[in-house]
Amino acid sequence: MSVGNLFRRVPKPLRGWALPALLVTLWWAAFRFGWSSSPLLVSIDSVWQQAVEQATSGELWVGLSASLWRDLAGFAIGASAGLLFGAALGLSRLFENLVGPGFHTLKQISLFAWIPLLSVWFGLGDAAKVAFLSLAAFFPVVLNTFEGIRSVPGDLVEVARVLRFNRWQLFMRVVLPSASPSIFAGIHLALIYAWLATLGAEYLLVSGKGIGNTMIDGRDHFRMDLVIFGVIVVGLVGFTLNWIATRIENRLLAWRGRSVAGF
Length: 263
Known about the structure:
263 residues, mainly alpha, 12 helices, globular
């Protein structure tokens, strides 16, 4: 039996767990057979005990809720501003000529280069972190919205003009549907970038609670079980956010049809 046929026999919901299962198996084997004695790698049992302790004490939920609140607030602000700004860039040549060069200059600045400036303006609290996350979400939404609008086929616009569509009808019936795949791709990226930036903000702006701060505590006290537990939580939350965004995108853009991928 070929690898492809064997893979098809695995239920679809389980196919994505092949790599995590392999990593966990190797992790377990490293301690079971004594392959590693480094203090930098702790056993699965130690991490599980840390997870139970964090969950039962409530520290996990306090840190996770704080991180998610910052993430969603920054994402909502940045994505909303990005949609408006990107649409203005895409629809108006005048606006693009006036602010486009400045925007394309700002987007070249590393995201983490804004941290010193934001910390001076907003301090080290949640306001600075939310502003940082808003920047992380802003740029991908702007770029994808702009590209989506500018890539609308000219033939569709000409047909709309023949049908005497006004500006609002042209935007709602032609431009928006045609640009929506690119726009949703930008929103999807913004959600991912905002979550990644959440951990960066909590590392660099250490005031307050959060999953990033939990990992910092583990690092400072050399508690690798706490660090690895934090890494797993971050990965699971990121996976969940990506899964939700993918389901919403597939539902709203179902008219695109199925992918040409083999699986």
